[in-house]
Amino acid sequence: MNVSIIIRVKNERLNLEKLFAILKNQTNQDFEIIVVNNNSTDGSEKVVLDFFPKDRVCVVDIKDFSYPRACNLGAEKAKGKYLVYLSAHSFPISNTWLADGLSNFENEKVAGVFAFPIPGKDSTLAEKISGIPNKIKRGGYLGNTNSIIRKDLWEKHKFDEGLIGSEDYEWSLYWEKKGFSVINEPKFQVYHSHHLRFLGLIKRQLKWKKQTEEINNKFKT
Q1: Is the separation of the CB atoms in 51 and 24 below 8 Å?
Q2: Which residue of 4, 11, 55, 145 has the smallest Cβ count within 10 Å?
Q3: Which residues of 136-145 are buried (b: 16+ CB within 10 A; e: fewer)?
Q4: What residue spans define the domains of the chain?
């Protein structure tokens, strides 16, 4: 398989049914699915087999969950040249989503690809009106809500498991310092929501700001 799609899962059976139906209809089918299961009790980890054959599926259980650990664990099991990260409630916007994202790697200096998520139909009014998840300027930095990275680069610099979040930012910043680029590809967007109200959105952004400042300081030393 050329691509490994790594999905973090915890009790999201219905979302996974929707997501896997979309992935099954992608024009590019040269991928495996890796489910990183965080103690699901609703059978989430089994849904993938309703859509894909066993030889294209790997389910791995994670203990002591953290986002960077889940990302690394999925990558450790991956056979693909490219690692695609998705949350279980990120829904690609088209059936060429994967092909559109991968097309950016024709440039050898591209380390990763991402796209700002679009608030879904079930998003809160605050998310739909403000568009905060999309309008906050994050430059060319990955978001593992939906991203693709080169596995060979991951092998040289893995996600920092000492972080409690923003491991995607740290990874992309590391490679940009090495002369690589991270591409914002609009055709690679997903529908995604955290169902947060205005206060929740503000708190989330302040938390992200603090984390990224700490990472920036790390690279200054």
Answers
A1: yes
A2: 55
A3: eebeebbbbb
A4: 3-220
Phi, psi (5° rounding) for residue 217? -65, -35
Under a CB-based contact definition with an 8 Å cutoff, are residues 58 and 77 in contact?
yes
Report residue 12 as tokens: 């999201």
List for the chain the helix, strand, coil content (%; round to 5).
45, 20, 35
Structure token digits, residue 110: 């591209």
Specify the pTM.
0.87
Q: Is 185 helix (H, G, I), strand (E, B) or coil?
A: coil
What is the fold, at CATH topology level, of the domain defined by 3-220? Spore Coat Polysaccharide Biosynthesis Protein SpsA; Chain A (3.90.550)
Helices then strands, each counted (H, E), the chain: 8, 9
Task: List the chain pLDDT tens, one digit each, 221 residues.
Answer: 799 999 999 999 999 999 999 999 999 999 999 999 999 999 999 999 999 999 999 999 998 899 999 999 999 999 999 999 999 999 999 999 999 999 999 999 999 999 988 876 665 444 455 454 454 444 456 888 899 999 999 999 999 999 888 899 999 999 999 999 999 999 999 997 655 455 655 666 666 676 777 777 777 75
